Amino acid sequence: MFIDINASRIDIGHVKRLPSTCENVGTQAQKTVLVTQVVFPPNNRQCISRQRRAWYDTLLGGYGTLTGVLNGIDIETLANRMHSAGSKLNDGLTLQAKWMPTIFEPAKISAGIDTLMNQLINASNDFAVGFDTNITKFINWTVCTLQTMYEQQQKGVMQTMLMTGNEQVWRTIFNTSVSRDAWIHLEAAKMICNDTICQGILTMYNVTKVIQMCKYIVMPLLLGPSGGEWYWFPTMKGEYIDENNRTHDLSICTPTLQGKICRVQSAVYEPCLLENGVNLCKWIVLPLSYTMMMEVAPQEVCLVTDTPAIPGMVVPFSGCISNVSSLTWENETFILYADREEHVTKYWSPQNLSIP
Fold this sequence. Notes:
This protein is of the alpha+beta class. Helices cover 31% and strands 27% of the residues.
């Protein structure tokens, strides 16, 4: 591996911003609290109980009765007895007379078979007529049920997105109240939903002044006569620093999806920045044997060391090196990589339901 060490350069300055932490801060904004409600229409359909019961009792009940009769009679025996019924009644009487004591009982049996067959035919006709009549109820019940399920699914998806704080959903639903440029703070945990309504709170800020601020680190100063230097760490109070090197405490600010809202807030007074005639600055003094290394951004490293980490470094050293791909630190070589960006596209296709 060939490393281009000539591309590395030393950054001048002991206050280093951390690029990954930079964000917009609104210092002047008008706050509006929206008490939101999403009302869902009631489901007045009765297809789940009344129409389904009519369909089940009329169609499946009749069908069950009919198939119960057919299953209870041996089809082969029924076919043979049909030959002896009706016009073949005399054959039935002769056959039965060979082993029956009287001819009355065989005739009675044959007549009973005729009656049974008539009942079966009538039941089949009634079933066919009933099926044609009730199939409309069945279709209506099916459409009603599917429509109800579809509405319940839509309601469930909407409630889930509201309770999980989906910004696009909130902006779309309340587009008449929330402007396109407004900074919004969603309190999804306070969104309460039931079967008929969702209630919650949306805080909107109309920001008129924005400042970019970043977290930062302070590198120690190398102070003292030649051969007797020490590392002097100044103590800073502010958590963030703006573009004018003023520090700020954003712990009391309100987070939004677009940045923090810090209305009418002054910068933190930092004595170690020596902005006034009299300053009381607290320092931490460390010997030259103290070492520190941290990667504050891709291929950007801040070091405190008395040993050269890259060729050409003058030690003792306190500062940051940018555009570095390789360095040696405490007898170990580090290879640093730049951040990468990749694009991935996937196509989703719905699953097709089989035709019943």
